[in-house]
């Protein structure tokens, strides 16, 4: 398996409840390295562009309001097969369906306020990393 980088967000429901460290521990325990990280607060326009692929979905407006309602922590995670591995660590979108021990099973509040975002493929990982990080910020 190749060394990959994926993009992650610790969402507002989690930063509000002081869960940044607990979530980062899950990544590190699973062998993912946090190679870049910063805490930001998105504007609604920035959240809207990030989730553009969901623009036609009924939850889009609520999702964008939620994502800019409080600070988030944006991150780049690196490791062998990091994209799929992170999706495993995160668990299913709906915490009711998430496997025990996953971030969403332990921390998510609802299908919308589900604590983390993770890229779903190499192409989206590259686009999402470049949306939030300059090359010089990726120090490895
Ligand atoms: N979402 C929602 N309601 C839904 C499905 C998704 O509010 O019925 C939100 C949720 O925050 C989710 C995000 O939209 O994480 C993006 O949805 P996606 O299907 O890409 O799920 P993910 O890749 O985050 O597991
Ligand atoms: Mg997704």
Overview of the molecule:
The radius of gyration is 14 Å and the shape is globular. The protein has a single domain (about 5-40, about 70-135), classed as Alpha-Beta Plaits, CATH 3.30.70. The chain is built from 7 helices and 4 strands; from the N terminus they run βααβααβααβα. Strands 2-3-1-4 form a 4-stranded antiparallel β-sheet. The protein is of the alpha+beta class. It has helices at about 10-15, 20-30, 45-50, 60-65, 80-90, 105, 120-130, and strands spanning about 5-10, 35-40, 70-80, 115-120. The structure holds uridine-5'-diphosphate and magnesium ion. Its EC number is 2.7.4.6. It comes from Tritonibacter scottomollicae. One of its GO terms (molecular function) is metal ion binding. Its cofactor is Mg(2+). It is an enzyme of class 2 (transferase).
What would CATH call the architecture?
2-Layer Sandwich
Name the CATH homologous superfamily: Nucleoside diphosphate kinase-like domain
Structural class: alpha+beta
CATH class: Alpha Beta
The CATH topology: Alpha-Beta Plaits
Are there runs of 5+ residues with pLDDT below 50, and where?
none
Tally of individual domains: 1
Function: Major role in the synthesis of nucleoside triphosphates other than ATP. The ATP gamma phosphate is transferred to the NDP beta phosphate via a ping-pong mechanism, using a phosphorylated active-site intermediate.
EC number: 2.7.4.6
Pfam families: NDK
Family: Belongs to the NDK family.
